[in-house]
Amino acid sequence: xxxxxxxxxxxxxxxxxxxxxxxxxxxxxxxxxxxxxxxxxxxxxxxxxxxxxxxxxxxxxxxxxxxxxxxxxxxxxxxxxxxxxxxxxxxxxxxxxxxxxxxxxxxxxxxxxxxxxxxxxxxxxxxxxxxxxxxxxxxxxxxxxxxxxxxxxxxxxxxxxxxxxxxxxxxxxxxxxxxxxxxxxxxxxxxxxxxxxxxxxxxxxxxxxxxxxxxxxxxxxxxxxxxxxxxxxxxxxxxxxxxxxxxxxxxxxxxxxxxxxxxxxxxxxxxxxxxxxxxxxxxxxxxxxxxxxxxxxxxxxxxxxxxxxxxxxxxxxxxxxxxxxxxxxxxxxxxxxxxxxxxxxxxxxxxxxxxxxxxxxxxxxxxxxxxxxxxxxxxxxxxxxxxxxxxxxxxxxxxxxxxxxxxxxxxxxxxxxxxxxxxxxxxxxxxxxxxxxxxxxxxxxxxxxxxxxxxxxxxxxxxxxxxxxxxxxxxxxxxxxxxxxxxxxxxxxxxxxxxxxxxxxxxxxxxxxxxxxx
Length: 518
Description:
This protein is of the alpha+beta class.
């Protein structure tokens, strides 16, 4: 017999290694000896009150042996001689598209502009220490995409787009800890993700797929409304029958290429702003109602904030407790910041994007000359502004949070996790009014919602501009582009995902669509 029950534990309870067994026996009113196993289904923390509660959903096995194997099995076939599907981009969407192709009996041929995870590290070191940006290998481009060197956050609201559990189980199959199967807000960590990504590549290669690094697609040939070949940067040309376009939200050259070829794209709403960084102990104190260090059984605290300001949403994005701010530029002449965390989330800073919704139809009238690329051009202008304000390197412009809201230049800045360094700049006047004024009011509101959040001990760092794609690549009910019948726009770059899990699910869907009739 199996019983699913909910248990509520205090932190003192959690200190006991046998507490789930004890509490389950009490809840079910049975002897402990009758319980042959307990499987944790979900775990979450309720810190709304000073007495913190840990909520467990568990399956209790009563006089029955718990199953050892996962209910999910991945049937990867030898596809070395099978028909091919070309996948451009090897981020989450491209990886899961490739894995799903193999399950369906088709050969994925992956073309990735960047380097593998090991070689990619050298380019990350160069941008952090030497301020040198490799336009094909950076925090956005390379094996695993932008997700590889990030927090690896797996929380998603896209529950209707596909089987979320299947994506999680596949990550565990490839080396992620099984804690992601139970945590309410799961993450893997930037120190562990590269190995998981490498294992996915090895699965693809071991089953007959191909992965080509440093192979940027620069053009393609279209005949009879189909892509018949792909042209690579090295001059090679590859004939193709099906193309899954999974290049991510920062592959601007792809948007320009589609636009030049009069292949339909559409400007879409997105969000931009800054990244705010607090000492982690401040966020812990607010969220856990504590002074001094948080309880050793509690993870670094996070937060999620949203406020409507002048008919636009101002909200936190990609919150990284115990994390780092990193330089995410993809070209010289721009400064872009993002966040990441190690698996233990044990850095002394907490950072989060705080961004403002940009309505593509109402907010970008000065950019109408750029047509459907108007959001992209606005994004670029803000990144160039940050580059200039920071001193024309990867040093980022920054301001104390209170100074930004009160409209004064900071005479000094707080310590930061951002390795290239910060330069004091008047972001309150440099940012466009549609962003800056809303951010200032948003921060004031957040200070009311989280007492202690509004503090001179926090820095804001500019700019957080790559939250999502400013361009949508349309597709029809068969997931094909309406003009190009064998082109399948996929993931964040097409405007169909907002994170690792939703991109992975979209990759699977596009793979299933791409092989129809092949």
